[in-house]
Amino acid sequence: MRLSKFMSYALRHQPQKFGLEPDAYGFVRVPNLLTVLRDRYGDLETSDLERAVQDCPKRRFEIRGEKIRARYGHSVDVMLDAQPCRPPELLFHGTSPAMKDSILEEGIKPMKRKYVHLSKTTEEAFQVGGRRSKNPVVFAVKAEEAHGKGIKFYDMGLVVLTAEVPARFVRFADE
Ligand code: HQG
User: Fold this and answer.
1) Which domains does the chain have, with CATH numbers?
2) Which of 5, 52, 73, 75 has the fewest CB atoms within 10 Å, i.e. the most exposed one?
């Protein structure tokens, strides 16, 4: 598993398994994470970790002082201390066609994660859906309208988070 993928796994889903003790905001100490990473990847320095963080266009991780965390994607409890944003008219969600009917019926749910993850472009959503299917479907979320009805969105860069998207704000992207 490549470094960034393993870091995502440990920080988002299984910190306890590796003896990492995240604070309420999901931060673990950099030296502790380095110890875990050295077990698998050999002699890594803090600078290698910093490079992994900086080289990621999706900005998966954040280093603050001596601590590091995943910025999104968690299944473990986390407080992200992100400010709600005013979203664009439309955001997008790419997924497998197998989820289509269920999403149209019950909306987009966070499933195992703490938040629903949305994309800013159909291209990005298509890539996200491509993790699950060769023929992903892309939904458009009427984000501005949902925001007007009190639903909160959090802009994390390429990814926008929200708690859940009710079905009335979801349609196919190409309709
Ligand atoms: C689906 C990666 C049936 C949903 C990605 C998705 C993203 C439903 C799956 C980020 C449903 C959950 C998150 C419903 C949602 N019925 N299926 N009502 N509501 N689903 O992995 O958005 O590269 O938790 O469509 O690129 O695929 O790791 O969410 O297929 O940005 O940084 O349930 O993770 O980012 O799957 O991915 P996931 P996701 P990284």
Assistant:
1) 2-70 (1.10.10.970), 91-172 (3.20.170.30)
2) 5
